[in-house]
Amino acid sequence: MYVYVCICVCVCVCVYVCGVCVCVCVCVCVCVYIYIYIYIYIYIYITLLLNSSNILPTTKEDASAHVKMLWVRRVCGIIFVSCALVSGFSISNRTLNLMSRYPLIDGHNDLALKLRMLHNNRLNQINLHAMEKVSTDINRLQDGRVGAQLFAAYVMCTAQDLDAVRLALEQIDVIQRMCTEYEALELVTTSEGLKSSKKIACLISVEGGHTIDSSLAALRMFYHLGVRSLSLTHTCNTPWAKSSSKIYPFYIKETRALTDFGMAVVEEMNRLGMIIDLSHASWDTAWAVLNVSTAPVIFSHSSAYAVCNNDRNVPDNLLHALKKNGGLIMINMYTKFVACSDNANVSDVADHFDYIKTLVGSDTLGIGGDYDGAVKFPQGLEDVSKYPTLIQELLHRKWTEHELAGVLRLNFLRVFKDVEKVRDMQRQKPPGEIEIPLQEANNSCRLILRPPGPSMRAVSKNDVNVLRPLSTLLLACLFLLYF
User: Fold this and answer.
1) Does the annotation mark 110 as catalytic?
2) Known catalytic residue: 254?
3) Where is 43: in which H helix or E strand?
């Protein structure tokens, strides 16, 4: 019996340290458990035979001792099997050690949106270490071995042409305050700062090009406020780029995949050193951007179209172009982008990693969970604390630690550094000053000032009343001269 108990203990240790397959662990431990039961019953049977031959003592005290021994062995068997099962489903030391050496850089998180929705951006009302009704807080980021987070300043498409810029500024503000008021967080704006941070590094991204209101000046101001990534669209077209989404048709403006002004946005982002994010952009727009951009681009929270045929995911030909660009696709955790249904598990997510790795290599992969933005996540990946579960699954699928170090961290650092290199090469290039044509902006709230005087859009009613009699007098004079 003791040999089998030792085997059970060894299995537990192997699972805990090395991440041996859970199924093997369960099978071995069940066999041990069955053996213990068989041993007990055989022992009882032999004991009864021996007792009937008066070979063993038959006193009441001896019988009680035998019963106690049987129960001790039974309890020991249950304990060993339970320990093996629990250790089999826990995260291995190998996984946690890997993620401690290479803390995850998560490409997309919408906690700032939840702060607006639930608390109106009032940070003094919350404890960011432990929050309810969200999938992200500091404690869970630490449990998930997240070393850096791109926090999205998201503005809904209904604000386009209205107060999208103001709302974006308010979201940038709450991210800045959040990341400077909490000791566990650190706001960073460079690849070097991201690499060297010993805290949870915060990068600010803006979700949706409608937030710049078709203004390169607004884009530059976002950069100076610390924004280092911009997704060109969200669920609506902008006047200069097309969205992948068709779920909100009343937000859609007719536009080309990428207009001349859209190209100017791409070029200005290259000049600034701001990462271009193509998640939510249409495939046509993504192709156009890849033809214009001199810097790598990312899909901050998208998955493989071949695995789940949702338009928010990326098809094979675009993945090949992304590989050539040196960019990155950061896999989304939303069930409908992972499994094209409301139900998914860790294996479904890992399938996207396996597929893209086989197609274009692991150096094109990252992780962009979309927590607190999407509404439903796979079983086992319910919040940001569960990222080690995904990494352990990939280890079970024979991914190397070198490959996973890239997925977790190094691939994004490479892309960010390459974007900064392009910026440095363009230091002598002047800022873009192109304005979007009025017919493309199609915005009734847009005030255009042209020297030396105001445009007719800015003429007041009083001015019109003064001009009306003058024009009448001029027409009368022309009439008299003619006759």
Assistant:
1) yes
2) no
3) helix 22-52
